[in-house]
């Protein structure tokens, strides 16, 4: 187990920019792509991903401080501090049971693939911490390794299935075929967004509201173009942060840059992915009776969509305001405000770019994160203290990750609150949802085929 831990530590230290060419080359060879072509594809994907990460860093480094300044300017006083996902990831990887959990997550993916229970081959190992932290917190509460391992395995199963089920949206809305996103920080919002979106479909009047970024372009002319939307929204946040005029304009220009650069980087990413995708389709048609394999990647590849960024820029100040008035909330949004685009990306895809629905549902998702973060803060705070993190200046910690995420919170609660009753209930709900969604997706696929034939 120590060897497994050492190997994964080395891989994680290398980071996705090093790992992607290697992993994609191996996958390409498995799909019978020639070595040089496979390596070129892997290298191109890595370059595209590097560009995406650079632009996201540009987004975070500019938006993060502005969002924190807004918190201070609004004078919100809450006693649980959002310390950011990075601090939570550090707690996760320092746990003594992390090698066991990583092996369990990896084995779960392999078993599900072998038995055709998932199509997602998750190469996004640097985001395994979203699944592992649930097991680590469950183990911390119960002092039971099997409960900790079970919680992480269930998190893995849910992550891979949600990735499967949302892959059509990744392809149709974001234009990235052959890819799924098993990143729980993005997927978790789906369990709230999907039923709410269907509920809105049934509300007369409300279901007719359909306003998109494209509509903004139509009514506002060139001011509605992504470059100007980024400038306007970025500058607006700068004003709320009480920046000087030059800093306001600088933030606006940087947000405009994000709007323009991310699609270009995604196009480069897609260029590298296409040879692998085409080879996979050909091989699966010949050898696996058309079975579809999906490469599981970091949700960073979709957060630069113009509607996602627009929604996030609107959600951030509203989340800060909501935190102050939401009954039961004690979490002060802070460090993770810069990663709100990850939390809203799949909401936007499910709503097919409807800005009204995306904004409404995203705010409900953020409210759930704040309340779950408040509920689980005491345990997370104690766990962080055992790793040597100094919390003397805070009444407690949370983030927009860990067990603040809706799916993570539900699994953690099931495994720590009367698990003899709650875990079987969780299994029953998971199986019920699994059967329902699979039947629905099969029916939708059949209807689509019938339309093509007609």
Question: What do these coordinates show?
Answer:
The chain is built from 17 helices and six strands. The chain is globular. Helix 7 packs antiparallel against helix 16 and helix 11 (226-240) packs parallel to helix 13 (306-325). Helices cover 72% and strands 3% of the residues. A three-stranded parallel β-sheet has the order 5-1-6. Strands 2-4-3 form a three-stranded parallel β-sheet. The N and C termini lie far apart (57 Å). With 454 residues, it is mainly alpha-helical.
Architecture blueprint of SSEs:
Elements (H helix, E strand, L loop, with lengths): L1 H13 L1 H15 L4 H40 L5 E3 L2 H9 L4 H17 L5 E3 L6 H14 L2 H28 L6 E2 L3 H4 L2 H12 L11 H8 L5 H15 L4 H43 L6 E3 L9 H20 L5 E2 L7 H11 L4 H32 L10 E2 L7 H11 L2 H35 L1
Parallel strand pairs: 1-5, 1-6, 2-4, 3-4
Helix pairs in contact: 1-5, 2-3, 3-11, 3-12, 3-13, 4-6, 5-6, 5-7, 6-7, 6-16, 7-16, 9-15, 11-12, 11-13, 13-14, 13-15, 14-15, 16-17
> Terminal Cα separation, in Å?
57 Å
- In round numbers, the mean pLDDT is 85
- Computed over alpha carbons, the radius of gyration is 22 Å
Q: Indicate the low-confidence ranges by residue numbers.
A: none
Structural class: mainly alpha
Topology as a string of helices (H) and strands (E)? HHHEHHEHHEHHHHHEHEHHEHH
What is the global morphology? globular
The order of strands across the largest sheet is 5-1-6
Tally the beta strands. Answer: 6
* Residue share in β-strands: under 5%
């Amino acid at each position: 187990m120590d060897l497994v831990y050492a190997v994964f530590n080395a891989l994680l230290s290398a980071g996705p920019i090093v790992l992607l060419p290697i992993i994609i080359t191996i996958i390409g060879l498995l799909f019978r792509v020639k070595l040089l072509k496979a390596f070129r594809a892997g290298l191109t994907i890595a370059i595209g991903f590097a560009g995406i990460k650079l632009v996201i860093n540009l987004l975070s480094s500019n938006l993060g401080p502005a969002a924190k300044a807004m918190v201070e300017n609004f004078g919100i006083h809450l006693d649980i501090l959002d310390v950011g996902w990075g601090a939570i990831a550090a707690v996760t990887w320092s746990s003594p049971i992390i090698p066991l959990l990583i092996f369990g997550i990896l084995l779960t993916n392999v078993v599900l693939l072998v038995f055709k229970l998932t199509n997602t081959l998750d190469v996004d190992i640097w985001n395994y911490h979203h699944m592992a932290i649930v097991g680590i917190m469950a183990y911390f509460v119960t002092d039971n390794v099997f409960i900790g391992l079970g919680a992480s395995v269930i998190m893995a199963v849910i992550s891979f299935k949600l990735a499967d089920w949302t892959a059509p949206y990744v392809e149709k809305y974001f234009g990235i075929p052959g890819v799924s996103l098993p990143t729980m920080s993005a997927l978790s919002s789906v369990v709230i967004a999907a039923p709410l979106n269907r509920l809105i479909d049934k509300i007369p009047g409300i279901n007719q509201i359909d306003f998109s970024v494209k509509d903004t372009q139509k009514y506002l002319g060139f001011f509605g173009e992504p470059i100007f939307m980024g400038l306007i929204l970025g500058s607006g946040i700068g004003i709320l942060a009480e920046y000087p005029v030059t800093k306001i304009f600088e933030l606006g220009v940087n947000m405009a840059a994000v709007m323009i650069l991310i699609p270009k980087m995604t196009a480069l990413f897609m260029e590298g992915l296409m040879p692998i995708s085409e080879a996979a389709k050909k091989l699966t048609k010949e050898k696996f009776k058309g079975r579809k394999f999906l490469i599981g990647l970091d949700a960073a590849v979709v957060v630069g969509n113009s509607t996602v960024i627009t929604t996030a820029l609107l959600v951030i100040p509203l989340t800060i305001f909501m935190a102050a008035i939401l009954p039961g909330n004690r979490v002060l949004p802070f460090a993770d405000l810069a990663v709100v685009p990850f939390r809203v990306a799949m909401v936007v895809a499910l709503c097919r770019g409807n800005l009204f629905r995306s904004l409404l549902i995203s705010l409900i998702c953020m409210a759930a994160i704040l309340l779950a973060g408040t509920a689980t803060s005491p345990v997370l705070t104690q766990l962080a203290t055992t790793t040597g993190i100094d919390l003397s200046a805070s009444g407690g910690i949370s983030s927009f990750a860990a067990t603040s995420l809706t799916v993570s919170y539900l699994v953690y609660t099931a495994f720590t609150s009367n698990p003899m009753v709650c875990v079987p209930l969780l299994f029953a709900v998971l199986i019920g949802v699994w059967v329902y969604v699979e039947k629905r997706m099969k029916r939708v696929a059949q209807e689509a085929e019938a339309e093509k034939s007609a």
